[in-house]
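Supplementary Note 3. Input sequence used for the single-chain structure prediction.
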Amino acid sequence: MTARGRVAVAALLILGAVGYASWLLEFVLDTGIDPLRGFASELAAADQPYGFWFRTGDLVTGCIVAVAGVLGLSRYSQGWVTAVGWIALIVFAFATVADSRLPMSCAATTDAVCAAREAGGHLPLTHDLHAMTSASASTGAVVSCLAFLLAAFRYRWPTWLKITGVTVATVFVGGTVWTLTAAGLRGQQDAWLGLGQRVQLLAFCGWLIFVALSVIHVTPERNGST
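The predicted structure, written as discrete structure tokens, is reproduced below.
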């Protein structure tokens, strides 16, 4: 049962990573969103032709990762450090679900009318709420990264796992900084916001796989809560 439980949680995390990479479909679908400059969230905007599918991808991802997070917190925490990591993943999951239910109404980077409404502050409240849920998801993801990475060194996880964690976390944090910087420069300088965000998203998919590997290889099973 222990082995099955580990495999189940790891499989959920990997499925979550696959679901969170649903934005890669933009390379085979005619979305009209520039992957170098457009927000990935614009793929799921309410007025986009494939928006429903991208919103569904986020919804399914959030639900799957939430279940994995709750199971991981209750059965596979290794002290308070990993408990923080699991809680942060749960925050990411619920924020991602909220993100999918509060989509942008339009894509400002490709729609001049939408851009003008954005500049004039005339977009629906859902845009502000979407920004809040996206920020919450990103915060949960970053905290999860830092917590599990600290655990890898604190609890002396295998060297190969530590190297993997550092590599993936570095790319993820780098992508996050790039995205935030490019968003701050938006309208003043083209810093390839879309590319930075997609690096961030892809790296976090890798991070979910890293956490899955930690469940399989290092974290002890606990009976009951942490």
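The chain has a mean pLDDT of 92. The two ends are 19 Å apart (CA to CA).
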